Amino acid sequence: MPELPEVDRAAKLVKAHAQGKSITRVETNEDSIVFSGVTNIEFTEEIQGRKVEDVRRYGKVFFLELAGEGRMPVLHFGMTGNVIVKGEVPLYYKEGPKKGNSEWPPRFVKFILHLSTPEDNCASVSQIAFVDARRLGRIRLCKEPLKEPPISSLGFDPILSMPSLEDFSENVLRRKCPVKALLLDQSFSAGVGNWVAGLALFSLKITAVSVNADSNEFPNDWLFKHRWGKGKRKQLTTLLLTSGKPATIKWITVGGRTSAYVAELQQLSSSKEAEKETEQEEDEESDLTELSETEEVVVRKRSKHLNPQKIQQVSEELKKRKRQQIS
């Protein structure tokens, strides 16, 4: 899911191409799920002809401030939402398609804004599309975006409204839940998602916003670079400890989300829940379970990675036991 850095980058992109321009035309596709509390027709009628004065972000939500009477477009990406500017390489969460796509209008488009100034000719009109493949994003209209849901129900924004250490500590100590689950709670900290929270718990000292959410520019010692590909036998990159030894990356489920952590640096609590998660993870890392009383071998989905010799040994052992039972 796009998190604060990706949404911040998208808001800046829209601002660069829309600020000071008028919305001369709006194209929409009907979608009663993504358009929330408003139809695509109402959306068009309310914003067409108005000038974009600013584009602002709060948490994972961003909105366009428009001149004149009427409500403002408030946008949330959900899992797969995105904005694409015609003629520019699309932004993608972590990575995009292996092959570039210059198709216009793009697939899964919900609306396209045509923007221009009186001095622009037809060739210089900007076009900005909002797309969403899985339809988990939301397009709303709000009179005062900062005072209405969804933004009004969000907690502090780590970039825009980070509380003092004293207030932050007080708010944290009032809660009784895993710290990552707390960070993922948008009513506590708006914009913090799975990978941002993981990095924060990995003693992150700089913000991803400073490199415009381009993962290629992230430092190699960020956990972000190495947290992907759970369950794969061969990791593409290796995270090194300060000692120069390779770090041991494990995964647990916290707050309903898969969390990566470095075993040498981040210690699990001694609670039963943590022990249960650890046991589950260790079980997932096994190729074969122990032989059951019915002498059946449970082969996991990753069986294509099993050692052929190990499979042969187990098979021979089963045959041997069956012969003993017959005799």
Automatic annotation (TrEMBL):
One of its GO terms (cellular component) is nucleus. Pfam families: Fapy_DNA_glyco. Its EC number is 3.2.2.23. It comes from the Eukaryota. GO terms for biological process: base-excision repair. Residues 2-137 form the Formamidopyrimidine-DNA glycosylase catalytic domain. Residues 278-296 have a biased composition (Acidic residues). It catalyses: Hydrolysis of DNA containing ring-opened 7-methylguanine residues, releasing 2,6-diamino-4-hydroxy-5-(N-methyl)formamidopyrimidine. Residues 271-327 are annotated as: Disordered. This is DNA-formamidopyrimidine glycosylase. It comes from Phellinidium pouzarii. The lineage of its organism: Eukaryota, Fungi, Dikarya, Basidiomycota, Agaricomycotina.
